Amino acid sequence: MAERIWDKFLTDRDKAVFEQSGFGAKGGGGKKPALLIIDVNYAFCGERPEPILDAIKKWRTSCGEEAWESLPHIRKLVDRCRAKGIPVIYTTGTVRDDGWDKGSWAWKSSRSTEDVSSGAPEARDTNRDGNDIMDEIAPGPRDIVIRKHKPSAFSSTMLTAFLNDLGADSLIVTGTTTSGCVRASVIDAFSQNIRVVIAEEACFDRSQASHAINLCDMNAKYADVVSTDEALAYVETIDADYNLPTGKPLGA
Known about the structure:
Layout: H1 12-21, E1 33-38, H2 42-45, H3 52-58, H4 65-84, E2 88-93, E3 144-148, H5 159-166, E4 170-176, H6 178-191, E5 195-204, H7 208-221, E6 224-226, H8 228-236
Helix pairs in contact: 4-8, 6-7
């Protein structure tokens, strides 16, 4: 079996447990997937590729160079899904300028007061809101953008309702962070019996160990973790009609 990104973090005991317990079987994708791109914004990517310890000086939640390595993989999936007529759904965060609605996000970082509309104070002269989706994968007129307050793309959002409107039965998941918002969204999808395929190289995290181990855990129990090439091959098998947005103003 080909080595997976998480193998170097597993003990021999862990490997034996996975082998004998039956976890990690291929679940398979659905017949009508939607592409979900989770929080690929300037707060998590920064404005240019640079080592993470440099990137987080300006954007405290940046994932550094790993974010920029994932962008071309996400771009490939976006382009191919649009060409196939597969829905493309983005999420990003939202917070008031005064930070009043941060809730529990304010509890676990000494730099959480920086997360106002323009990101860290040092970044204000860029005119970039940290929650702006990256230009490299910018939403198109027929794509859907969901703004959320919590890790899961499903938490207090319209995602399930949009999937129903689209007629989608499954998800191809990309984005960040693997251990946070990606994992939370995948578990919520699993809890609704929604099949999930995760494009490995199209996900990223600020912690290398957390990235690998959470991919391992999701592949074991909740989703199929596949390469971007495998995800693209899966996209090519889809032949379905969706109730996509028109991308035009009402009455136009």
